[in-house]
Amino acid sequence: MPSRAEIRDHVATETERRTRLAVPAFAGGVLYLLSSILISQTLNDAPTVGLVQGLKPALSGVANPAVSPRTEEVRFISHHSFGLVAGSALGAIAIGALTLVLLVLVDATRFRRPQMWPGARRLVLFAGIAVALVSIGHQAVSSIETHNFASGHNFTTEAVNNALTKGSANEIVDYVDLLSGLGLAAGMVMTMLNALRVGLLPRWMSILGMVTGLLIFLPIGGAELQVIVSFWMVMMGILYIGKWPGGEPPAWAAGEARPWPPSARAAARMRQPAAAAAGAESSVVPAPARPAAGSGRKRRKRGGRGA
Questions:
Q1: Which of these, 86, 95, 130, lies nearest to 24 by C-alpha position?
Q2: CA 88 to CA 136: how far, in whole Å?
Q3: CA Rg value for the chain
Q4: Reduced to 3 states, what is the DSSP secondary structure of residue 246?
Q5: Which residues pair with 155 in a beta bridge?
Q6: What confidence tens digit (pLDDT) does each residue in 49-100 have?
């Protein structure tokens, strides 16, 4: 159990770190949104190959056409590689800021809850770095592979697949992307749960943080859903700078766990069983006492003698 002096020193250091990271958190949220918008807008104009177009060579009796129907798609990616790489670079900077924000939260949570898994910090650190690097590496590899395809003379389906997904470089990057994204999502979920338990984050921010980790791991929904990631980072910047609406959670200043009290609805549900039990006890009416056996007969006998 840390002493009051240790708690005071830790809170002072923690506050300084939080204040320094407030602006990077704001910037990271904005850059992540810009990254999603830039990549989405670049790929929106990419030519698409429908089912009929894809099956046209086979329907014509050509099993392996000299020019794949997806050739124009690969050429488009090659010609617009700068926008894709630039968008990935912005995303990498945002992930770097996110990692720093998470590290402060992990340290603050573990100080207040020592039983938290100590490997959470390493998981967030290494997975965050890997996700940031692979986001650039993936587009860099794609740019090189698609450029080699566009400047070459082999436009078969196999060449298209190698340029987009099946090349050795693409497979390595995809494998690292999968592992690092999964690690960062797991680290974020673990951090959000423990931060909620000690009272460092409101419940809705913890839930939103878990959703953020999952969206980074599975970037679905385009720029629309990625707004959640940006919003969470901006709100963390507001929390870190000490401008949280209604005052920051008490656990930050106290330097110890201050779990959130149950909500009014949860408290009402907890009171219902006790109230029902009390009502059941009060509704029990004691049975009337039965007269002693034989007392009636004695009274009747006395009455008979008197008559």
A1: 95
A2: 5
A3: 33
A4: coil
A5: 67
A6: 665 555 566 555 555 778 888 888 899 999 999 999 999 999 999 999 999 9
